[in-house]
C-alpha cells in the first residue's frame, strides 16, 4: 500500500474529520456518527447534526480489502478516486441525479457527499412493489446524458483518450470479468445457487451457442472503450423517493460499452419481475406489477433514445455524426448490446456470487426456484436473440413469450 | 514544452552523445554522422565508424513540431517514448523482425537503434518490381505475434489495461483520425489529388452508403482497444533485403483494432498493384508482377492465420479462448476488418494528404489517373463488401473483378 497515511477511521475520528471541512457544519455543532454500510468494500458513515438544523452528510471510506473474505482479498484504494471523479463528472452532466460531492481525500480514500436519508434503495422499493412514476424519465435521461456526453460522439477525441487513462480500472473490471462473464458459465468455486435448479444450470454450462455469445459480450466489455460507464448500475446503486432518483456508487466506472449500463438497469427490473413469481401474491396483483415493470423497461428505453437523439442533434462534435443512417445504426447496436448485457447480468445473479435480495428474500427454495428458472430462461433468450431486436417492444415481447412458456404453461 | 533540457542535436553533438553510450563504439573510434531522414516529424542520423569495423547505428530524434509546416504544428515528443517502448515489446515478441534498441533518452526524445544500411525501404523495392520471397512469411508472423500476444487473448486483462495507458497516443491517433478517416471523404483543405480524377472523388463524397461504412470503421478505430498495433504499417515502415524484413517507426502505436495493421500492409501492396497500371511496362511483365502481389497478399493472410491459430492453441490465457467457434468467429471478423481498413488506406493515399511514391512516381497525370482510379475503385469495394468476405481468396477475387471492370474493359 503506497498511501502511508491511510488508516481506517473510527466514528470519533470521522466526526473530527468532518468538523474541519469548511462550510459543512457550524463550529460547535453536536455531531452524531453512525456506520450504516452494508457493502463489502467500503465503510459508510452518516453524520447528523444534533438539533433542529437536520443537516447530515455521508462519508464513504474505501477499505483496502474486501470485507466479505477478510483482509485476504486486497483491493485498490484508487477506486475511491475513480468514484469521486466519476460522481463529479456525472454531477456536471446530470445535476440532481447523483449525490453531490463535498470533499474528496485521496490519502484516506474517503469521499464526503450528500446524504440521501429521505431516499430508499430502489431494490427494496421494488421488492415492496412500490411504483416510481418518475424513475424511467430520470434513469433514461441519466443514461443518455452520461453515455453520450462522455463518448467520442461528444468529446474531443484527444480529451476522451485522456479520460480513458483517468478511469482505467483494472481491479474492479476484473471483478466484473470474473463474476459476470466467466464464473457463472462453468462449475466455478465462486458460484452459489439453489440446488433445485442445478439441472438448468448444467444445461447452461453445456450450451455451446450461449457460451459463444457470452464470450463475444465479454470481449466487447474488455475492448470497447465507448463511454464512461457507471459499471455497476443495478437497483442497489440507485436511491429513490416517489419523485426523485439518485444514482450512486460508481466505483466500477471505466470506459466500456454503453449497453452494459443500460442492460444493468433492465436486468435488475427483470430480476424483480421474475422474483414476483416466487412471492406469495394475488395473481392479479402480480400481473399488474409485472406489467408495470415491463412498461418501465419500455419507457426507460424510449426516454433514453429520445434524449440520446436530442443530444446527437445538438451536442455531437464528431463530424461524422451527421452521416445519413449512422445515428439509427448506432442506436440499434446499443439496443442489441443492452439486451445481451441484460441477459448476462440476470444469469450471474442466479448462478454466481452475489445474488439479489429480490429473489433471495423468497424463503421457500421451491418458490424461489420458480423465479430463478424464469430469470435464467429470460437471460438466455436475451443473449441469444439480441441481434434480432429492432425496437424495445421486441425485448418486452420476448420476456412475455418466455414467461408464457416457462411459467404460465405449468 | 515541459522537457527543459530538450534541444535539437547537431551532427557534432550526436557524435559526442553516441560516444558516451557504453558498448557501442571503441573510445577512440572515428565517427562520421549524417542526417539521412526524409520524414517530416523526426531527425534521423546514421553514425558510422570510419575504418574496417564497419560498425554503425541509427539515432532518431523526435522534433517538437511537424517539419512539413514549420514549427507551427506542434507535436508531442512523447511519441519517441511510445516508439522506443513499442520497439522493445516487438523485439521481445518478434526478435529479428524489428531494429534493436540500444538506448532511449526521454529528455532528448531520442532513440539509438540498429542500423539497417543493407536494407532498402520496401516501397522502393516494390516500385522497382523486386520480389521478396520471405516477406509474406515474415510480416504474417510479425502481425500474428504482435497482435495476438498484446491482446486480451494472451495477456492478463489487468496488465493489458496498464498497457492501454502506457500507449495512449492522442496526438498521433488524431493524425490518423483526420487524414485516413475524415478529410478524404469531404472537400477538406488538406486533400490533394490529381485534378483528372476529381469526378470520381466527388462521387465518393456523395456516396452515402460508403461514408456510413467509413464512419463505422472510424468508430472502431476510436473505441476498439484490441491489441497494441503498429498504427502506420505501410511499406515505407518496412525495410527489406531479399531474405530479411524489419518493421520500424511504430510511433503511431496504440491499442487499436488489429485489422488496421493487417489492412495497412494489404492496402500498400494493392496501391503498388494499381500503380503498375500507370508505369510504362510490358503487359505480360505487369500482369506477372500484379499476380505476384496478389499472391503475396494471400500468403500474408495464410501465414498470419496459421500463426495466429498456433498462438491461440498454445498461448491463450483467456479461459474462453477454447469456447467452440470463438476462434473461427474472431478470425473471420479480423479478415473483414482488414478488408475495410485496407480500403480506407487505399483511398486516403489518392484523395488525401500524403500520397505514396508508387503512384506519385508516374509523371504523366493521365497514366497516374489510371492507377488512381483503380485504387479508388478497389478501396471502395473493400469497404462496402468487407462483410461478405469469408476467406482471403474473396479479397483477391474482388480485386481481380474490379480491375477487370475498371481497366481491362477499357
TrEMBL record, chains A, B:
Q: Which UniProt keywords apply?
A: Amino-acid biosynthesis, ATP-binding, Kinase, Methionine biosynthesis, Nucleotide-binding, Transferase
What are the coiled-coil residue ranges?
none
Q: Which GO terms describe its molecular function?
A: S-methyl-5-thioribose kinase activity
What domain of life? Bacteria
What is its pathway?
A: Amino-acid biosynthesis; L-methionine biosynthesis via salvage pathway; S-methyl-5-thio-alpha-D-ribose 1-phosphate from S-methyl-5'-thioadenosine (hydrolase route): step 2/2
Q: Which residues form the Aminoglycoside phosphotransferase domain?
A: 34-285
Q: Which Pfam families match?
A: APH
Fetch the InterPro entries from UniProt: Aminoglycoside_PTrfase, Kinase-like_dom_sf, Methylthioribose_kinase
Enzyme Commission number(s) of this protein:
2.7.1.100
The chemistry this enzyme catalyses reads: 5-(methylsulfanyl)-D-ribose + ATP = 5-(methylsulfanyl)-alpha-D-ribose 1-phosphate + ADP + H(+)
Cite the binding residues for ATP.
42, 60, 114-116, 249-251
Q: Where does substrate bind?
A: 232, 348
Q: Where is the signal peptide?
A: none
Q: Which family does it belong to?
A: Belongs to the methylthioribose kinase family.
Which NCBIfam families is this protein grouped with?
MTRK
Q: Which PANTHER family match?
A: METHYLTHIORIBOSE KINASE
**Subunit details:** Homodimer.
| HAMAP family (alphabetical) | Salvage_MtnK
What this protein is reported to do is described as: Catalyzes the phosphorylation of methylthioribose into methylthioribose-1-phosphate.
Q: What is this protein called?
A: Methylthioribose kinase
Organism (species): Metabacillus rhizolycopersici
Amino acid at each position: 500500500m503506497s498511501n502511508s497515511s491511510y488508516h481506517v477511521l473510527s466514528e470519533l475520528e470521522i466526526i473530527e474529520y468532518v468538523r474541519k471541512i469548511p462550510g459543512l457544519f457550524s463550529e460547535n455543532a453536536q455531531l452524531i456518527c453512525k456506520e450504516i454500510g452494508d457493502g463489502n468494500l467500503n465503510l459508510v458513515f452518516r453524520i447528523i447534526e444534533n438539533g433542529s438544523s437536520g443537516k447530515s452528510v455521508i462519508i464513504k471510506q474505501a477499505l483496502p480489502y474486501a470485507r466479505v473474505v477478510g483482509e485476504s482479498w486486497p483491493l485498490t484504494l484508487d477506486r475511491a478516486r475513480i468514484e469521486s471523479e466519476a460522481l463529479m463528472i456525472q454531477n456536471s452532466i446530470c445535476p440532481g441525479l447523483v449525490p453531490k460531492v463535498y470533499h474528496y481525500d485521496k490519502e484516506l480514500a474517503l469521499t464526503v457527499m450528500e446524504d440521501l436519508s429521505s431516499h430508499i434503495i430502489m431494490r427494496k422499493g421494488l421488492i415492496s412493489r412500490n411504483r416510481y412514476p418518475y424513475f424511467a424519465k430520470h434513469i433514461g435521461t441519466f443514461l443518455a446524458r452520461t453515455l453520450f456526453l462522455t463518448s467520442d460522439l461528444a468529446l474531443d477525441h484527444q480529451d476522451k483518450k485522456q479520460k480513458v487513462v483517468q478511469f482505467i480500472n483494472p481491479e474492479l473490471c476484473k471483478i466484473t470479468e470474473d463474476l459476470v462473464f466467466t464464473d457463472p458459465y462453468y462449475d466455478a468455486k465462486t458460484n452459489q445457487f439453489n440446488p433445485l435448479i442445478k439441472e438448468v444450470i448444467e444445461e447452461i454450462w453445456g450450451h455451446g451457442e450461449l457460451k459463444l455469445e457470452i464470450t463475444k459480450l465479454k470481449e466487447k466489455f474488455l475492448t470497447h472503450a465507448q463511454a464512461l460507464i457507471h459499471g455497476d448500475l443495478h437497483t442497489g446503486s440507485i436511491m429513490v423517493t416517489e419523485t426523485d432518483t439518485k444514482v450512486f456508487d460508481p466505483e466500477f466506472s471505466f470506459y466500456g460499452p454503453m449497453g452494459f449500463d443500460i442492460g444493468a438497469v433492465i436486468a435488475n427490473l427483470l430480476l424483480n419481475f421474475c422474483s414476483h413469481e416466487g412471492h406469495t401474491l394475488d395473481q392479479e396483483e402480480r400481473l399488474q406489477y409485472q406489467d408495470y415493470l415491463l412498461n418501465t423497461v419500455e419507457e426507460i428505453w424510449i426516454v433514453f433514445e429520445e434524449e440520446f437523439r436530442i443530444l446527437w442533434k445538438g451536442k455531437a462534435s464528431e463530424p461524422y455524426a451527421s452521416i445519413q443512417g449512422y445515428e439509427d445504426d448506432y442506436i440499434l447496436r446499443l439496443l442489441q448490446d443492452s439486451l445481451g448485457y441484460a441477459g448476462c447480468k440476470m444469469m450471474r445473479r442466479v448462478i454466481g456470487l452475489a445474488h439479489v435480495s429480490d429473489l433471495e428474500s423468497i424463503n421457500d427454495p421451491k418458490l424461489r426456484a420458480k423465479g430463478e428458472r424464469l430469470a435464467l430462461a429470460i437471460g438466455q433468450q436475451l443473449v441469444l436473440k439480441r441481434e434480432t431486436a429492432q425496437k424495445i417492444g421486441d425485448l418486452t415481447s420476448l420476456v412475455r413469450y418466455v414467461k408464457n412458456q416457462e411459467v404460465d404453461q405449468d
